[in-house]
UniProtKB/TrEMBL annotation:
The lineage of its organism: Bacteria, Bacillati, Bacillota, Bacilli, Lactobacillales. PANTHER family: HOMOSERINE O-SUCCINYLTRANSFERASE. It comes from Enterococcus termitis. The record marks E111 as: Important for acyl-CoA specificity. The active site is at C142, H235, E237. This is Homoserine O-acetyltransferase. Substrate binds at K163, S192, R249. Belongs to the MetA family. Transfers an acetyl group from acetyl-CoA to L-homoserine, forming acetyl-L-homoserine. Pathway: Amino-acid biosynthesis; L-methionine biosynthesis via de novo pathway; O-acetyl-L-homoserine from L-homoserine: step 1/1.
Length: 309
């Protein structure tokens, strides 16, 4: 089954060129099934790029999925038009009475700020609190993962000596977890961040487990033992060119960035990067949808209000 999105969302054209089946609202209305309700809180600057990346991964499932997009009303987006936000995005006030099977919280380019100094932090914490009784399972990415661990478990982030950027090898530590079903012992994943979380801090929280880790990049995936919250420190959703574009952008700003590790062939930034992580990305997101969400979420989502994550 396909993902269901607004009929005129620009991401549809990109996905259809990749032969990904996307169903618009009109056609989906004629299918008599209970689709999964997924909310994407998109905190990334170029929201249209992130839409394509995440919808591509969510489409790799036989389940029908209704997708809503959420943006922060307390933050002015500078890289996405107001018209796009108005047509395709909700504000929190629009959805706070609704219930969702799943919530994805993206990364954001604010990790060098203390959490409380992010201009939308108060609104974000309201969403995190709301998600405890209105969302069955959450998936947090990069800064979104660090913010979630900080809010829900008081785990601090810590600055790195230099930006972590590149494609790194990761070990699967807990292959029995359903979200890692079908994974090989090792897999590749992109990272792009200035901060990290300490292993000891996570190990000190009884309800959390470290599921995958890299000798070079550190912790990659953390899961709540009730299978209802996951925290990915890297960016498996990234496209082939995303790290390349970030590198060129930083060069243009005069930052003099370090070359992303294990990314450009022969470390030549003029060569086209190989795509080596999308198999793991597709498997991780389809496992999350199937095992963490679909297999366990209640048919009547309003019943979530009776039990807090």
């Amino acid at each position: 089954m396909p993902i269901r999105v607004p009929k005129e969302l620009p991401a549809i054209k990109v996905l259809e060129k990749e032969k990904i089946f996307v169903m618009d609202e009109d056609r989906a209305m004629h299918q008599d099934i209970r689709p999964l309700q997924i909310l994407i809180l998109n905190l990334m600057p170029k929201k249209d790029e992130t839409e394509v990346q995440l919808l591509r991964l969510l489409s790799n499932t036989p389940l029908q999925i209704n997708v809503d997009f959420l943006h922060m009303s307390s933050h002015e987006a500078k890289n996405t038009s107001k018209d796009h936000l108005k047509r395709f995005y909700h504000q929190f006030s629009d959805v706070k009475e609704k219930y969702y099977d799943g919530l994805i919280v993206t990364g954001a380019p604010v990790e060098q700020l203390p959490f409380e100094e992010v201009d939308y932090w108060n609104e974000l914490t309201d969403i995190f609190q709301w998600s405890k009784t209105h969302v069955f399972s959450t998936f947090h990415i990069c800064w979104g993962a660090q913010a979630g661990l900080y809010y829900h478990h008081h785990i601090q982030k810590h600055p790195l000596d230099k930006k972590l950027s590149g494609i790194y090898l990761h070990d699967v530590l807990t292959p029995t977890w359903s979200i890692l079903k079908g994974f090989d012992d090792v897999f590749l994943a992109p990272h792009s961040r200035y901060t990290t979380v300490n292993r000891a801090a996570i190990e000190g929280v009884e309800e959390l487990a470290i599921l995958a880790e890299s000798a070079e990049a550190g912790i990659f995936l953390v899961g709540n033992k009730n299978n209802r919250a996951f925290y990915a420190m890297g960016h498996l959703e990234y496209d082939r060119e995303t790290l390349q574009q970030e590198f060129y952008r930083d060069q243009a700003k005069g930052i003099r960035p370090k070359l992303p590790e294990h990314y450009f062939p022969n470390d030549d930034s003029q060569k086209y990067p190989q795509l080596r992580w999308h198999m793991a990305a597709s498997l991780l997101f389809s496992n999350w949808l199937n095992y963490a969400v679909y297999q366990n979420t209640p048919y009547d989502l309003s019943s979530l209000s009776k039990e807090e994550i």
